[in-house]
Amino acid sequence: MSAESPGQKQGFKSKFSNALRPKKSRQVLRKGSRSTTEVPLPPGPDLNKPLPDPAPLQAHRLKYKQMHSQVDTQLGERRDYTTMIHSLGLLDPMDNSGPVEEDNENREPGEGDIAKLPRRLWAYIAWFLSPADAASLSLASITLYRRLGFNYFMVLDHPANYDYKMDFLAGIDRDLPRHLLCFPCGRYHRRTQEGTERLKPSHVINPLFNCPNAQNMLNPPPRHRITHGRTLPFSFVQLAMRAHRFGPHYGISVDSLARRWQRDDWSHSSRYLVHDGRLLMRVTSQTFAPAGLPPSSQRLLLHSREDYWPFFSACAHWRDGELMPACKCALNHIPKARDNGGLQAVEHKVKDRWAGRQHDPNALTTLCGFCRPMRRCPECPSEYLIEVKLTEDRSDPRNLQFRQAIVVTRWTDLGDGTTPNTIEWGAVNGQRDDYDSFQHYEKRAIASIFEAAFTADALPGQRIISMNPKQKKQGEKGHDWY
Predict the structure, then answer these.
(1) In 3D, which of 171, 147, 167, 148 has the Cα closest to residue 156?
(2) Which of 150, 171, 192 is the last residue of a domain?
(3) Would 320 be classed as within a structural domain?
(4) What's the pLDDT tens digit per position in 279-296?
(5) Number of structural domains the chain divides into
(6) Full residue range of the structural domain in which residue 282 is found
(7) Between the chain's N and C termini, which has fewer beta carbons within 10 Å?
């Protein structure tokens, strides 16, 4: 019987040799050798049998790939919207590369293409434009000027097209840094105080250029009344916005417009900010107010005797609405001083002890629901906040004391400073009636925008209501304004 037979008992030597014998799977294939065993192949899939439904996640992936990986039949590109959105997010926001580059020096000039079109066609195109746009088109190149001619500039010189002329002249500010546009004359004048222009009171003669209409009262330059005796000429708005858009040598900085002044027992401070291409202004006015003023004394405290305007900053619509009644209501909340002589002092102490309170003559004044909310003028971008604060009186250095003072703060939007025809400047000065402040500033207040630019702490939450909720426009015929 051989050693391989199962009936033979194996010894130690045979077990050791079998352990060292290489396995069949480790045998090296040799040329010409064949496998002695045939492994049966598994049966192939049944093509007639339907495939099982994929998993929900796999089904969503297949559907998304089918929807967003289609090939555009016109351009031959794959419309993968996810890749397009991600590529837009990765682009540099300052990247100006595109199908047409404005500053491409290697681009072929288009004068030949412009010259191919006849003059009648260019005149027909300019007929659909405004006079200012047609003149700008004629000034774009020498070829267009030869096609359109000088007639569109003559049309701008007509008195009926004064607004179009100002719009056209405002568009060439970048080319004239040493000049300033004069609106009464309708032309540019050379700046006489280049780089040193300073805002001064209204009674101080402060010409920025030599203008023949400087003393013409029938054609005054545009300006905005800030407070009594203080105005903001539109020329300074131009200078501030030109310096912001083009560079410091085009005008003056915005911070140079800020001022502090006192007049008629009122102290004022103004500050300016450029936000989103527009000039914002904040004016804070305050004065000490005694308690228990009668109505006649309240009018003397709030209004000027010269023009019957408020001493604090106000827009052209201050007579309509509840601005002045709210100021008078705030004055009525100033606590009165107690008479501490005789039996009245004992009576007050007994009442305070019985009510469980302690009288503090310097306590903070709390306003009511009528005068506390912030007011917004519905016809112009102006907001008002009325407060009564305990302020230190420094008029007498030897006897410093705290007194109650009424503080009126106004925030307003003065426009982009290009021309006085802008909707913000016209609405603030009462020259336009097509402005809706609650539509333009429906998401964020002007005061919040202004204060957030200078301080990390925002204003306390204020409820903003309309200054004229009943939409009554009586002007001087009304009785509540005085």
Answers:
(1) 167
(2) 171
(3) yes
(4) 999 999 999 998 889 999
(5) 2
(6) 255-336+364-477
(7) N
